[in-house]
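Archive maintenance. Older records in this collection stored only the sequence; we are now back-filling the structure field for every entry so that each record is complete. The fields below show one back-filled record exactly as it appears after the update. Entries are processed alphabetically, and ACYPI008718 protein is next in the queue.

ARCHIVE ENTRY
Title: ACYPI008718 protein
Organism field: Acyrthosiphon pisum
Length field: 174
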Amino acid sequence: MNSISLFCNKKSIFLKACVTLLSEFFGFDTSGNSTMDLDFKLTYSRAGVSLNSIDHLLQMIKANKFQHYDLGHNKNLQKYGRPKPPEYDLRKVTSPVVLYYSKNDRVVDSGTIHKLISVLPNVYQTIMIPHNKFGHIDYAFNSNAKTLVFDSVINIARQFRIAPIHQQYGYYYY
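Back-filled structure field:
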């Protein structure tokens, strides 16, 4: 059992504190999430997430920039040719992008979404989740995510499956 499971499991005296922390840091809809299986979700949802990935996310939050991994002054000079890591050039993202966001998301707020809209060259659609308490972690954990998000993702993906641009390049989907 890992430390998160010890802290956030259904028998823990800290379960209420765990739910409060999730709600405050990420936005977490307690009405759409059962605390009974929270420890299971937290244990298995992090598969494939490395400490470097978490460190990179924290670096970007601190810098308030969508940037490459900060390796430190000397290694940045070696890898990037500059002392600070460069920002990702989102103007180079040419595929159609659909941006989902929610009012209760503490990680990606509406200001970030509007900044992305102004930089990304091909925003196909922007969708606000129609649920006031839906937060960042709810995309993975909320029992209503299928209805609130995933059905829409599937429908939009189906629109692109038969898009003329795919046929132009010889991609056919059945």
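Update note: The radius of gyration is 19 Å. Residues 49-88 form one domain.
Entry marked complete.
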